[in-house]
């Protein structure tokens, strides 16, 4: 991280007005997400780390959606509307109109270049200031430069101009050094050249890139800083690049947690949002997604095949093959395999939510267990409880949701239905197959199934000629033969 102190002579302009046509999406491009955050959110975060005096975001396409997203995370940012004149040059021009007296350095970032970090940009800025150039651009040398503007150098190897792919001759297009879309300009020099831009090019836009050539025509110094790592400058223009940027960011996040002491068995199938937090000695097994504001405490084992969204997992807990959202899993609790924890699930220390169990708004006390085949919703369970296999809380009567309250040390028989609202007192027990419609007092045994009645001979009388009747007849003869033998002996 770069130091966070205010840099009075730095303004950051973030371009986010473009339509993002190549995404073919109803959602504005800069709001597509990687690592759990919109593209523009990553850029805003990086900008903030540089401590600039001003941050301006330029919007136009779906301006309300983009402005809301920006101001939602960075209320201090100034949002500026681009008019109908298209192009990155025009976008910077309208931004600078908001800073008529600013005389420092203007760092231009693109809302669709999400992977640049503050360390790289800090070094870029120091390089620019050290050279006292009118502008410095960031370039990268790519195997495949398709789609990017090319950096054209003069005979001495200095930057001469940038040519957009659509305007490039074959020779220019063959250049593999590309413009990353990140620049720093002296404000005054930038203002002068922006006023000279025309839309006389293949796309009919005011290109910011033309400022570079214009500065050189005025014999002003322009430097290029080649990015140390080409993956930093990846621009997202289509869904393939979105996935690629997401993969690079994830690899970076996974590595960061590995260096913090987290065991991550299979980085390729582990996805961790930038907003999640993991403690040392957490183990993450393959095919696991740790998303949004999820926090995992030391020693917990997550996965395989698990997805946690906005969850809190306590120390030493185990969560296997589970899908959980807005759930709290206590220390040393165990969850899964094949569990579905929905919002409002709170499993206390040492508790268990087992196989094929779905929970929602369920508060489950210390050491309590819901081990098999259950639905527990709108329920409070005390401590030391064991619910038998197949427990169902019938929380919905077609009109409203009702709560089930189960006290401490309750043990329920298999296949119970708790018809809410209903209350089971401390230490109570319920029989197998019970349908609990009335409150059970503390310490009571609740039975709701009628005593069993066997109608002897029913199958042989009513199902003659079936396999069942034959089997019953054979069993009856064997029993009769046994009885005769016993009588003879006795
Ligand atoms: C741009 C550069 C190109 C560079 C590439 C790097 C120009 C003319 N070209 O091309 O040299 O290699 O970025 O990623 O600058 N935007 C506005 N207003 C507009 C148009 C665009 O704010 O009128 C914003 C977009 O929302 C986007 C950024 O500017 O965040 C870049 O625009 P985009 O259309 O993606 O430019 P590229 O074709 O990628
Ligand atoms: Ca782009």
From TrEMBL:
Catalysis: reaction(s): N-acetyl-alpha-D-glucosamine 1-phosphate + UTP + H(+) = UDP-N-acetyl-alpha-D-glucosamine + diphosphate; alpha-D-glucosamine 1-phosphate + acetyl-CoA = N-acetyl-alpha-D-glucosamine 1-phosphate + CoA + H(+)
Residue intervals of the MobA-like NTP transferase domain: 12-136
Segments of this protein annotated with the region Disordered: 461-490
Keywords: Acyltransferase, Cell shape, Cell wall biogenesis/degradation, Cytoplasm, Magnesium, Metal-binding, Multifunctional enzyme, Nucleotidyltransferase, Peptidoglycan synthesis, Repeat, Transferase
Positions of region (N-acetyltransferase): 261-490
Pfam annotation, one family: NTP_transf_3
GO molecular function: glucosamine-1-phosphate N-acetyltransferase activity; magnesium ion binding; UDP-N-acetylglucosamine diphosphorylase activity
Cell compartments where the protein resides: Cytoplasm
Keyword Cell membrane in annotation: no
Pathway it works in: Bacterial outer membrane biogenesis; LPS lipid A biosynthesis; Nucleotide-sugar biosynthesis; UDP-N-acetyl-alpha-D-glucosamine biosynthesis; N-acetyl-alpha-D-glucosamine 1-phosphate from alpha-D-glucosamine 6-phosphate (route II): step 2/2; Nucleotide-sugar biosynthesis; UDP-N-acetyl-alpha-D-glucosamine biosynthesis; UDP-N-acetyl-alpha-D-glucosamine from N-acetyl-alpha-D-glucosamine 1-phosphate: step 1/1
EC id: 2.7.7.23, 2.3.1.157
Active site positions, chain numbering: 372 (proton acceptor)
GO BP terms, alphabetized: cell morphogenesis; cell wall organization; lipid A biosynthetic process; peptidoglycan biosynthetic process; regulation of cell shape; UDP-N-acetylglucosamine biosynthetic process
Acidic residues biased stretches: 480-490
SUPFAM superfamilies: Nucleotide-diphospho-sugar transferases, Trimeric LpxA-like enzymes
InterPro entries: Bifunctional_GlmU, GlmU-like, GlmU_C_LbH, MobA-like_NTP_Trfase, Nucleotide-diphossugar_trans, Trimer_LpxA-like_sf
Region (Pyrophosphorylase): 1-239
Residues that bind UDP-N-acetyl-alpha-D-glucosamine: 15-18, 29, 82, 87-88, 110-112, 149, 164, 179, 237, 342, 360, 375, 386
Annotated acetyl-CoA binding sites: 389, 395-396, 414, 432
Function: Catalyzes the last two sequential reactions in the de novo biosynthetic pathway for UDP-N-acetylglucosamine (UDP-GlcNAc). The C-terminal domain catalyzes the transfer of acetyl group from acetyl coenzyme A to glucosamine-1-phosphate (GlcN-1-P) to produce N-acetylglucosamine-1-phosphate (GlcNAc-1-P), which is converted into UDP-GlcNAc by the transfer of uridine 5-monophosphate (from uridine 5-triphosphate), a reaction catalyzed by the N-terminal domain.
Name of the featured protein: Bifunctional protein GlmU
Name of the gene encoding the protein in the UniProt record: glmU
């Amino acid at each position: 991280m770069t130091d966070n102190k205010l840099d009075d002579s730095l303004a950051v302009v973030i371009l986010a007005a473009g339509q993002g046509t190549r995404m073919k999406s109803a959602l504005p491009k800069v709001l597509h997400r990687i690592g759990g955050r919109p593209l523009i959110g990553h850029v805003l975060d990086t900008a903030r780390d540089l401590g600039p005096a001003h941050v301006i975001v330029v919007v136009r396409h779906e301006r309300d959606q983009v402005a809301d997203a920006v101001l939602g995370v960075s209320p201090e940012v100034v949002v500026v509307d681009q008019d109908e004149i298209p192009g990155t040059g025009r976008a910077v021009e309208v931004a600078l109109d908001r800073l008529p007296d600013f005389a420092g350095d203007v760092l231009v970032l693109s809302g669709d270049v999400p992977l640049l970090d503050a360390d790289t940009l800090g070094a870029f800025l120091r390089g620019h200031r050290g050279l006292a150039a009118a502008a410095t651009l960031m370039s990268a040398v790519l195997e495949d430069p398709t789609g990017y503007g090319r950096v054209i150098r003069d005979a001495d190897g200095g930057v001469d101009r940038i040519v957009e792919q659509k305007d490039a001759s074959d020779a220019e297009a063959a250049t593999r050094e590309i413009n990353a879309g990140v620049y720093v300009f002296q404000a005054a020099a930038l203002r002068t050249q922006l006023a000279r831009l025309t839309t006389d090019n293949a796309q009919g836009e005011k290109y910011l890139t033309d400022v570079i050539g214009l500065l050189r025509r005025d014999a002003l110094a322009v430097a290029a800083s080649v990015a140390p790592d080409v993956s930093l400058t990846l621009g997202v223009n289509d869904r393939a690049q979105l996935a690629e940027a997401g993969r690079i960011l994830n690899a970076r996040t996974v590595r960061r947690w590995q260096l913090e002491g987290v065991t991550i068995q299979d980085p390729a199938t582990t996805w961790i949002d930038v907003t999640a937090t993991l403690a040392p000695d957490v183990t993450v097994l393959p095919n696991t997604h740790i998303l949004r504001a999820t926090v995992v405490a030391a020693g917990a084992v997550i996965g395989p095949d698990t997805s946690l969204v906005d969850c809190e997992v306590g120390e030493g807990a185990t969560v296997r093959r589970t899908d959980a959202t807005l759930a709290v899993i206590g220390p040393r609790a165990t969850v899964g395999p094949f569990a579905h924890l929905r919002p409002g699930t709170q499993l206390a220390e040492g508790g268990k939510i087992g196989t094929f169990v779905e929970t929602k708004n369920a508060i489950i006390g210390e050491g309590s267990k819901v081990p098999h085949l259950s639905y527990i919703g709108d329920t409070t369970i005390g401590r030391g409880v064991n619910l038998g296999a197949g427990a169902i809380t019938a929380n919905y009567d077609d009109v409203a949701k009702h709560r089930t309250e189960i006290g401490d040390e309750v043990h329920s028989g298999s296949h119970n239905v708790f018809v809410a609202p209903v209350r089971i007192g401390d230490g109570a027990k319920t029989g197998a197959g019970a349908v609990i419609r009335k409150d059970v007092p503390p310490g009571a045994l609740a039975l709701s199934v009628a005593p069993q009645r066997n109608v002897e001979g029913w199958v042989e009388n009513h199902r003659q000629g079936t396999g069942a009747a034959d089997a019953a007849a054979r069993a009856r003869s064997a029993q009769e033969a046994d009885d005769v033998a016993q009588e003879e002996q006795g």
